[in-house]
Amino acid sequence: MNARTTAALAWGGVLLAGVLWGGGALVAQFLIDGGIAPHSLSLARFALGMPLLWWLHWQATRRSPVADAGWRHLTRREQGHVVGTGAAMALNVSCWFAGIAHLGAALPTVISICCAPLIVACVSVLRGYEPFGARLLGGLVLALAGVLLLVMPAAGWGALPTGYGAGLAWSFGSAVCYALVVLGNARMPARVPAVTASAWGMSAAALCMLGVAVANGITWPEGTAQWTGAAYTGVATTSVAYLAFAWGARRLPPTAAVVGTLIEPLVAAWLAALWLAQPMAPRQWLGAALLAGGDAAAGAAEPGYRVAP
Asked: Are 214 and 21 in contact (CB under 8 A)?
């Protein structure tokens, strides 16, 4: 497979993940509005997503035993990397769902996904993964201006709506954790197949959320519609989406990978306006456009990008 085909498939995987996650935001709001706590929904998402990933892992290792990078074959540092990426995945989803509970589907999704490239770009520069240049600086300035327009309440910063500040905090927390997931996948050991890393990471995320859910009490889906929605979040937005993203992310520069998922907030905002009557204000759309433009400028890989070993 030549480099151009590999890059095209990598972008396809990242874009597919973004579309599935964008639709999942509305499903999550439907389930949370129906009484499922955000931490319980996070647990259901990872628990229902694990079986498919492990089945794909076992199928892959049965066809090619040489490709099996067993847990015992990894160094302690590599094991910590996999577990840490899974924990960041759990925190990302939990914070995102908590933001949705306060603000609805659109705004937390836009903040979580669109702010993550800023964090990834800064970390990539500081760690030496990507060089700092005028394009990155201009992109960061544009993106920060977009963030200010995006999060400003319609009535200004006077009396904030109930839960608005908490919703913003959860959404920005999700952005930080999502950036960690992107960087974790980008630096994943090359000898660990994407499906194996996803299965281990998902297992770590499920264990983290099990502890949180048990401590706070588990709320279960009720009725066919809620169980169907929970299954969608587990299989489509978790197993399929994270596997597609993990495969693509390790074949793209970290900032480019996270910029590719900017399709997620567009899908979420469009569906929220269409189905839930939750349109964003014109000022917020302008902020989102500036943020996306800044992310795109920052995400264009500068010469000298150092691919993960």
From this structure: no
CB of 235 closer than 8 Å to CB of 24: no
Tokens 């794909």 identify what position?
A: 56
CA pair distance 199, 59, nearest whole angstrom: 13
In sequence order, which residues have a C-beta less than 8 Å from that of residue 9 and are 6 or more positions away?
A: 1, 248, 251
Residue written as token pair 């910063």: 157
Q: Summarize pLDDT for 168-181 with one digit per residue, the tens.
A: 899 999 999 988 88
Closest CA to 52 of 271, 299, 232: 232
Question: Exposure of 106 by Cβ count < 10 A (0-12 exposed, 13-18 middle, 19+ buried)?
Answer: buried
DSSP 154: T
Mean pLDDT of 287-308: 57
| Mean pLDDT for the chain overall | 78
Residue 285 has a CB neighbour count (10 Å cut-off) of 15
Please name the amino acid found at residue 144: L
**Of 54 and 195, the one with more pLDDT:** 54
Q: What kind and span of H or E run contains 292?
A: helix 282-299
**Count of all residues that appear for the chain in the document:** 309
The pTM of the full predicted model, rounded to 2 decimals, is 0.71
Integer Cα distance of 97 and 265 in angstroms: 14
Cβ burial of 76 (10 Å; 0-12, 13-18, 19+) is exposed
Please give the DSSP secondary-structure letter assigned to residue 146.
Answer: H
Residue 278 CB-half CA count within 13 A: 19
How many angstroms separate the CA atoms of 21 and 13, rounded? 12
Can you tell me the distance from the alpha carbon of 267 to that of 254, in angstroms, rounded to the nearest whole number? Answer: 22
Task: Give the largest CA-CA distance in the chain.
Answer: 62
Residue 309: pLDDT band with limits 50, 70, 90: very low
The torsion angles phi and psi of 228, rounded to 5 degrees, stand at -65, -45
